[in-house]
Amino acid sequence: MDKRKFRKVMAANRGEIAIRIFRACTELGISTVAIYSEEDKLSLHRYKADEAYLVGKGKAPIDAYLGIEEIITLALKADVDAIHPGYGFLSENPEFAERCEAAGIAFIGPTAEMQRALGDKVAARKVAVAAGVAVVPGTEEPTEHEEEALIFAKQHGYPIIIKAAAGGGGRGMRVARNKKELLEGLTSARSEAKAAFGNPAVFLERYIENPKHIEVQVLGDGHGNLVHFFERDCSIQRRHQKVVEFAPSLCLTEQQRSAICADALKIASQVSYRNAGTVEFLIDKEGSHYFIEMNPRIQVEHTVTEMITGRNLVQAQILVAEGHRLSDPEIGITTQMDVSKRGYAIQCRITTEDPTNNFAPDFGTITTYRSSAGCGVRLDAGNAFTGSHITPHYDSLLVKVSAWGLSFVEAARIMNRSLQEFRVRGVKTNIPFLENVVTHPVFLAGGCDTSFIDKHPELLQ
Ligand code: ADP
Question: 210 alpha carbon to ligand 1 midpoint, in Å?
């Protein structure tokens, strides 16, 4: 791949991640292009770019950011060199990556081929097995027939988790604790997967009780050079969706850390990975780690890794897409030893959801918005300002708060102070719930596993 300097980059996304991309570009001297739907005509990301174009006129709000044809036509008209897909929307759509490249526009992400090898969970498990990395015991192929499911249950016992091969965002999963739940779950998971992801394929895995979710941030340049940026602990989840994330983990010995990071690199190198990516593992009570999936894109929680390593991951994505090698001065990573970490960082996702009403999304106009600031705090906000209209059309993430401290407890104290400083009126937020999490003794001791929120209903008060 030849090197080329991007002059203009489009973010095919909205909200905080579009703004994050624009900031990274501006710092690199690249001009920026936003797209926005009719529902987003007053959204902040539109005004944070040098140019902005309406997309998806007359389409459903979500579909505006999924129109491959329209987005590429617009990108050509606006003369952009590259498109950054952010997360969600088209970020894991190999067809989009292919169409960009065919139009002469660089896709800031892995090649379509790499996406195909990793995007589908069943395919990714095969990559991990080929790389010699342990996966959660599961079916090698999608499970179509009841008999296959029953044979798996006989071999591995219950509980079993039924997962959509194309799943994401914690959706399309079902836990079965007996034969009846397995057979019923198989049918309902398939139809749910078809409706949500357009692909009915599901597979089975042994369900690990109360695991920790540990994921490793990697970066590859597509020339065979790969490094990791240590791990994040994302065990604090609600309905299999991450709520609070931190780095580094408090539950790994140095030996375990080296082993899990090495395994992540083995998987990425199996496909000569290019771009930032995240290799996700579950850790069982015995401390063994098992690969579950790889996300070939930037993730919501990348901020905590940036804070402990001092590295700008979104800029690294752009530089790698420009054709740079990791060792080029622009990135400056010649060996793994060049990546170091310091302190602890925690991220909380402030959402417009009501924790006292089962986290129902809330809508309306924000009448007061005062955010926190100060030593050790980083904010990545979407439509967070006084007068902002929160609509039901998109996800409920309002602002990501990240806090850094030399120790985990100090980071937690800064986070708590920061959450307390916020004033958001007009719409309900989950701030009171987040305050309860970051002051909880189990959290402060690093003891949270994926069952933490379910086991502590007092967090909701
Ligand atoms: P998604 O792509 O939807 O995020 P993942 O495969 O990454 O799905 O899993 C999300 C979460 O679901 C995990 O962090 C974990 O809490 C739970 N989970 C997934 N697979 C298993 C499993 N085999 N055993 C126990 N929990 C699981």
Answer: 11
Angle between helices 146-156 and 179-197 (to 10 degrees): 120
Sign, CA torsion 412/414/417/422: negative
Ligand 1 near 167 CB (within 6 A):
yes
* Residue among 242, 266, 400, 428 flagged as catalytic: 242
421 Cα to the center of ligand 1, angstroms: 33
The residue contributing the CA closest to ligand 1 atom 16 is 240
Is 266 labeled as catalytic in the residue annotation?
A: no
Peptide bond into 355 cis (omega under 30): no
For the ranges 102-106, 137-141, 169-173, 267-271, the lowest mean pLDDT is seen at 169-173
Rounded to whole angstroms, the Cα distance separating 159 from 270 reads: 31
Q: Does the pLDDT at position 377 exceed 90?
A: yes
* ipTM for the predicted complex: 0.97
Looking at ligand 1, which residue's alpha carbon is closest to its atom 7? 293
Q: Is 105 left (phi over 0), alpha (psi -120 to 50) or beta?
A: beta
H or E stretch covering 305: helix 302-309
Measure CA 157 to chain center.
Answer: 31
**Measured CA distances, 306 to 22, 136, 248, 382 (Å):** 17, 29, 11, 19
Q: Which residues contact 148 (CB under 8 A, 6 or more apart)?
A: 139
Determine if ligand 1 sits within 6 Å of the CB of residue 207.
yes
**CB burial string 191-215: b at 16+ within 10 A, e below:** ebbbeebebbbbbbbbbbeebbbbb
Which alpha helices (DSSP H) does 159-210 contain, by range?
179-197
Question: 24 CB contacts (<8 Å, ≥6 apart)?
Answer: 312, 314, 315, 318
C-alpha count within 13 angstroms, C-beta hemisphere, residue 37 = 20
DSSP 123-171: HHHHHHHHTT--B-SB-SS---SHHHHHHHHHHH-S-EEEEETT--TT-
pLDDT in tens, 142-166: 998 999 999 999 999 999 999 999 9
